[in-house]
Amino acid sequence: MPYAPADAHIHFALHSDHHPGVIATATGPTADAARSHLHDLGFRSTSPTTMVLARIDREEPHYTARAAEQLQRYGFTTNIASDLQEEIDTEWEWGNYPFPWCTREEVREVSAEAQRIHDDIADGRLTIHFHADDGHTTVAVGSYPTGVRRHVHLHGDNHLRQVTTQFETETEAITEFQRLYSVAARPGPAPLTELETTVHRVLHADPAPEISPRCDITPDSPPVAGPGEHEEFLASFLNDNPQWEKYRTWSDETTIASHESLTVRAEFDHEARHRTDTAWTVAEYDGPVGERVWHATLTAGTPVALVHTLLQHLDAPTPAGGTEPYEPLRDAGWHPASHPARTTWRAPDRTMVFEHTPHATDDRWTLYGGTGLDRAAWAIRLSSGVSEGLLAELAATAVTLTPAPTAVAAPRTAPVPGLPPSVAQRHGRVR
Predict the structure, then answer these.
(1) Could you tell me if 374 and 353 are in contact, meaning their C-beta atoms sit under 8 angstroms apart?
(2) Where is this region: Disordered (predicted)?
(3) Range of 24's domain?
């Protein structure tokens, strides 16, 4: 039987809410056939014309290039957006990769296996019986319904998850797991990592959060730093503040600003482009050669005003006993919400969130732009040990970047003649 002509066009572009996820848009008479091929290559439908590739190994550009080549061999017309092509052409490495002896292709093989395990768990092909924290990472025991390696022990998270041991029976696998991890074993799979949660939401196109009924507003775009704004700010800041000394690293990719007190250090990454890339890393120490007191990271989309506030505070800290962190938010009408593990304050226009996670160490305080941290346009993360004065100043600056809330006027009911207004209101509508 002859094949139908490959009369379809497929456009590939970076996903706007998840880097480096990819969106494929297929149009033309045989677009259904193209989407069928894309599904076999790992893409998942999110609308009648679009499909998404989102992986926990962060290799979407690589697999997109392979998908485009295969579709071209079938006769389809493909087009790759320029920013995605740049990602395809750029080789990158996972930070602190535990297998430094591996070649790039060998790293991809390890990551691809981790992706397969992730997909098997997500799609129900691999049932996880127990999980545990071994002190360094997550371990688990699970079973496949069929296959050669039916009962397995797993080690690692995200792109590093691997099968470490195989067993003949489910009982043998679970017994050995409980012997190894004892009281640390917990039933069922481990909670999703932040990356797994993001991938899940992107693939399933979860609806936007419900709008709060307190204000007549809908979520708007948060303020975001434009291209080159951080570079310009850094040059201007160093020029206007001689107490900060500039250093460049050997690679010229990073500039370090050191305060004359030798207790504060800010590092700027000139290569940070995507809004989720860390552009600034800031730390304060308890002396010129002392221990680190706290640290913070700021992504590339962070408004310059917030960066300036942070560095300015480090140069001239607010005296102890000043404003509490939440006071500027409360005064500006931000909406508080308490959860078992955190407290959040959301801007009236829902474009910014200030979050406190009291039991966390590295990300105890997070200020970000957007309706959710997994889709944030930018984020500032501050560790434990940061001063309340700095938190209050960041909160006050965040308030200036959002419009004041618009109150909704309550409908007025005319009073019933001869009755006090309070009684008239209890009688309801006036005829």
Answers:
(1) no
(2) 409-431
(3) 9-89
Q: Are residues 108 and 76 in the same domain?
A: no
Q: Which residues pair with 132 in a beta bridge?
A: 139
Q: Tell whether 182 and 108 lie within a shared domain.
A: yes
Tell me, yes or no, whether 253 and 376 share the same domain: yes
For helices 60-73 and 31-40, what crossing angle results, to 10°? 130
Q: Which residues of 94-129 are buried (b: 16+ CB within 10 A; e: fewer)?
A: eeeeeeeeeeeeebbebbbebbebbeebbeeebebb
Q: What single letter denotes the amino acid at residue 33? A: A
Closest listed residue to residue 51, CA positions, set 88, 24, 15 = 24
Determine how β-strand 292-299 pairs with β-strand 378-382: antiparallel
Report pLDDT digits (tens) over 342-363: 788 889 888 899 998 888 878 8
336 and 330 Cβ atoms separated by less than 8 Å = yes
The predicted-structure confidence for 170-202, as pLDDT tens digits, reads as follows 999 999 999 998 878 888 888 888 888 888 888
Looking at the fold, whether 62 and 131 belong to one and the same domain comes out as: no
Confidence of residue 370 (pLDDT cuts 50, 70, 90): confident
Is the predicted pLDDT of residue 23 greater than 60, yes or no? yes
Is residue 205 included in any domain, yes or no? no
* Same domain, yes or no: 237 and 303: yes
Tell me, yes or no, whether 79 and 108 share the same domain: no
Q: Give the CATH number for residue 29.
A: 3.30.780
